[in-house]
Amino acid sequence: MAYPEKYKYTKEHEWIEVAGNIGTVGITDYAQNSLGDIVFVEAPKVGDKVTKGASFGSVESVKAVSELFSPVTGTVTEVNAELHDSPEDLNTEPHTAWIIKVELSDASELDALLSAADYEAFIAEETGH
């Protein structure tokens, strides 16, 4: 699966798409493949603060529980409630099934994230492929 060039990526395998001052956050295809079948998503509440690099929730799969790390600092403006009933959407639509939307506190934090090409190179290095 190709990684959308309009997104920015973290080395913890989250993506973010920014429109205006709102960032939409999800996990990458690589992450969902590594996790296996996702059975539960724990996300923050609307109004909660998230911090770049800090955990904001978790995903539970048949293999393990994995923390989610925020690519930016800001305030949660929306949570994808559909994931409560259909967490498997993260497996089937990893680059459109988002988890949270965040109002960015500092847009300059985006400069430190990876481009799609950089992320693919990072994965290739990490997996040896």
UniProtKB/TrEMBL annotation:
Cofactor(s), names only, from the UniProt record: (R)-lipoate
Limits of the Lipoyl-binding domain: 22-103
Modified residues (N6-lipoyllysine): K63
CDD domains in the record: GCS_H
InterPro entries the record matches: 2-oxoA_DH_lipoyl-BS, Biotin_lipoyl, GCV_H, GCV_H/Fam206, GCV_H_sub, Single_hybrid_motif
Pfam family, one: GCV_H
Co-factor note (free text): Binds 1 lipoyl cofactor covalently.
Summary of subunit composition and partner proteins: The glycine cleavage system is composed of four proteins: P, T, L and H.
NCBIfam families for the chain: gcvH, PRK01202.1
The family this protein is said to belong to: Belongs to the GcvH family.
UniProt-recorded name of the protein: Glycine cleavage system H protein
